[in-house]
Hints:
The protein is an alpha/beta fold. The protein contains 13 helices and 12 strands. The protein folds into 2 domains: 26-41 and 282-375, Aspartate Aminotransferase, domain 1; 59-279, Type I PLP-dependent aspartate aminotransferase-like (Major domain) (Aspartate Aminotransferase, domain 2, 3-Layer(aba) Sandwich), CATH 3.40.640. β5 (164-169), α7 (181-190) and β6 (194-198) form a beta-alpha-beta unit. α2 (45-56) crosses α10 (265-280), α3 (74-86) runs parallel beside α10 and α12 (320-332) packs across α13. The longest helix is centred in the last third of the chain and has 22 residues, at 282-303. The chain starts with 6 loop residues before the first helix and ends in a 9-residue tail after the last helix.
Amino acid sequence: MEVDRLKRFSDLLHDLDIRGAYRRLRMPAGADFSSNDYLALADCARMRRAIIGALERGVPCGSGGSRLLRGNHPEHEQLEEEAARFFNTERALLFGSGYAANTALLGTLPQRDDLVVYDEHVHASAHDGMKLGRANAVSFPHNDVGGAADAIRAWRQRGGNGTPWIVVESLYSMEGDRAPLGELSSLAEHSDGFLMIDEAHATGVFGPDGRGLAAEFEGCDYVVALHTGGKALGMSGALVTGSAILCDFLINRARPFIFATAPSPLVAAAMRESLTILRDEPERRSRLSTLSRYARAGLQHRLGLRTPDSQILPVIIGENELTLRIAERVQAAGFDVRAIRPPTVPPGTARLRLSISLHVDERLIDSVVDAIGDELPRGAGHGG
C-alpha cells in the first residue's frame, strides 16, 4: 500500500484555507500602503550609489563564513563603530536580520534564574527567542507598566533572585502605538533589571536624527536596543546596541550569531549610508510626519476612525474572510493594502494595516481612504 506522505500537510493547508488563514506570495502591485520602507530609502539614488561605490572599491558580495571564522570584514566593523556613535551607545553588533537578532538576544542574555517579562504584543521573533532561552517568561497586558511591575513583584515573592528582563517594542508593528518607555525604564532601573527595546518601526522615523523613540535611554547600562535595517533604513540586517560586555557575550554565546554566515559586507556598507542619510536629510522624516498626520485626519473625517500617532494605521475589521474580501477589493482599485490576520494579530482583530511612507502623497492617501470607506460595512473598523 502506497503511503501519501504529503497528505497531512495538504490537509493542514486545506484547513488554513477554510479558516481564511491561508497565505500566498504575491508580487507588489498598486500604490504602496503596505511596505515598511517608510523613508523610501530602499530604492533611492544615494543607496544605489553607495553599493556601486562599495563594489568599485572591492567590497565583496558575500562574506564567505561566520564572523568568528573568515566572515568578519572591515565593513562590518566600520558599521558597528559608526552605529555605536550614532545611537550613543558603547557598542553595536550586526546581525543578519531583526528576527535573528531577537532570537539571539532572548535566547542568550536572560539566564536560567532570570525572568523575562514581555508585552503581550511583542514580535513573533521575541516569542521564538524566549522559547530558545532558559529563563521563565511571563506576559503583561499591552503597555501596562503596572502589570509588568506586578509580575516582577510576584516573582520576587516566590523566591526569584535573578534579573528581570523587560521586553517591549517602542512602536508596535500592528497597533502603531508607542510603549511608555520612560516608565518602563524606571521600572527596569528600580528592579535591578534590563530593558530590551525593539525599535524596528521607530528607527529612522522618530527621535533626534532618526535615532528612534529609545534615544534618550540608549547608553544606560541596563538598556539593550534593536534597530532593524529592513524598514526605514531601507536595507536588511539589524543592529543590537548596548554595553560592550553584553555585545561580547552575544559574540561568544549567541547561536544565531556564531553559526550563521555573516551578512554581506555590501549590506554593512549600505547601512552606513542609511545612517548618513538620516543625518543629512531630515526633510524625509518631516515629510513622513506630514503625510502620516494627513492620513490620520482623513481616516478620522471620512471613516470616523481614531488611529495612533504614527505611520502605522490599523483599520480593524474583525473577521478573517471579510477582511480578506475588503483587502482584495481595495487592491483591485489600485492600492497595495494587505489583510493582517491571526496569528499575527489576536483572534477576532483581523485588520487592514495602512503603512504610510514616502512612496505615497496626499492624493493617493485621499483615494485609498475613500476606497476603504466604500467597502467597510456600517459600523466596522476602528483604530488601534
